[in-house]
Amino acid sequence: MTRWVRALSARTGGTAETLGGKAAGLVVLHRLGLPVPAGFVVTTEGCRAFRRDGRLPAGLDGELATAVADLERATGRTFGGPRRPLAVSVRSGAAAAMPGMLSTVLNLGLTTGATEGLAAETGDRAFALDARRGFLRGFAAASAAAGAAAGASAGAVAVPEDAGGQLRRAVEAVFSSWDAPRAHTYRELNGIPHDLGTAVIVQRMVFGNRDGDSGSGVAFSRDPGTGEHTPFGEVLFGRQGEEVVSGRATTRPLRELAGRQPRVWAGLLDALHRIEQHHRDACYVEFTFESGELWFLQVRPGRFTGAAAIRVATELADQRLIGRDEALLRISPVHLRQARVPRIAAGEADVLARGTGACPGVATGRIATTADGAVRAARSGPVVLVRPETSPDDLRGLAAATGIVTARGGPASHAAVVARAMGKPAAVGVAGLAVDGAAVTAGGRTLPEGTLVTVDGSSGEVVLGHARTVTGADDEHVRRLLAWADDASGDHSARAGAHRLAAAHAALRDR
Questions:
Q1: Computed from CA positions of residues 299, 303, 307, 311, in that sequence, does the dihedral angle turn out positive or negative?
Q2: Which of 224, 383, 401, 460 is most deeply packed, by most CB within 10 A?
Q3: How confident is the model at residue 155 (pLDDT cuts 50, 70, 90)?
Q4: DSSP bridge pairs for 300
Q5: What is the model's pLDDT at position 151?
Q6: What is the DSSP annotation of 79-137?
Q7: DSSP for 147-207?
């Protein structure tokens, strides 16, 4: 008999294909002894059965009830209860990462009675009511997405007053979001099979908006732009994690944690080191801290590009975490091409505004301020999509654009993550940029849609018109890697870098 639900612990078995990538990562965090909110996962097999039969599989209701009871015992809380209420997050987690494409519901279980219980427990009625409103918004959005995936028209969403009913509906909504148009488009663009399905991860809520000693953030163990061995990321104090990754809010540099929450900062540094040692690679984590206590919600490989990937590979070899042969095999000809991306020539361009470079490279195109506008305009030439921030619903426009610019967000925002995945030059968090209908204001100038601009995804500059570009010489990490490639192939003749790397790969595969 198929088991649809697995508890999340250091003893949990299964692969990412069954548990989903996010849950598999949480199991690793458990095994490393890092703090992870208690929870369980509904496997991808459950999603495939749901998609095949059009309903939750037989036996899942009973397994959910058992898993919730176990979670109540582990936390000392009651799901939907009026005293010490248990609220949970309900998140997707496919085997292949699909950032922001599938549904999430936070604060689930906050029935009317549970909300009053949370207010009484915390002594903060405003916080409890805000948490309840967040749940209702998320539940409505997930339900609407599920309806869209099924081809139903949007309408009023009835929210069950019992916590068990809320959970059942949320699991259905997350499963249904696998077939939402934006998710289908993302899989088409990224070569992800349509029959994989998603897992559903249910965990005790950790509230980043609980008080002044709470917050949420994302962190890379190394700088994703350069590969430098220093923690890099973003944090929001007194806010939930969804606001960090959406790009809607202005985040703070990760290093501000050191001064404001030194215990959280120390725990984060220790965790990043332990995760790197385990994976022998740069890593990315999402975390929340509630009243000064740190919790990890997700971990995955850093997935760096270009020069950053090459630097990480060579420095990991220097640290003896990997050998030189493995360093060579981790680098592809695409990484070499990305390492030589052009940049706008300094001092020559008419700079409109500056932000944070999110994906290296230079793109020139005409401004489009909506996803649909970008798709239309791209039929007649290159387009730069300029938005306040992007969301999963902008995916078609992101795919059509040659470059991306957002007024808000940081290196871990939706726009930045998707730009890196697609290899499109991008600048995010551009100061002084405003999008107003079919026009963009930057540097005191108003530019209508169709204006030609250039974006530098390394410096974060946005300039008017075309710009002269320059390409620098290979840096020391590229030179060292290619020297290792020549040693591996035994050929030290003068050749293009891609040929040197390909020869090394061929030699290593033949050993």
A1: positive
A2: 401
A3: low
A4: 284
A5: 66
A6: ET-SSSEE-EEEEEEESS--TTTS-EEEEET--HHHHHHHHHHHT-HHHHHHHHHHHHH
A7: HHHTTPPP---PPPSSHHHHHHHHHHHHHHHTTSHHHHHHHHHHT--TT--EEEEEEE---
What span, in angstroms and rounded, lies between the C-alpha atoms of 404 and 398?
A: 7
Distance CA 262, CA 249 (A): 23
pLDDT, position 405:
97
Q: Which of 274, 246, 278, 252 has its CA nearest to residue 414?
A: 246
User: Chain centroid to CA 364: how far?
Assistant: 26
Which of 33-42, 51-60, 224-233 shows the lowest per-residue confidence on average (mean pLDDT)? 224-233
Q: Break the chain down into helix, strand, coil percent, rounded to 5.
A: 40, 20, 35
442-489, pLDDT tens digit by residue? 988 999 999 999 999 999 999 999 999 998 788 999 999 999 999 999
Sign of CA dihedral 67, 73, 76, 81: positive
Q: How many residues appear in the chain?
A: 511
- Say if residue 367's pLDDT is above 70: yes
Burial 323-347 (b: 16+ CB within 10 A, else e): ebbebbbbbeeebbebbbbbbbeee
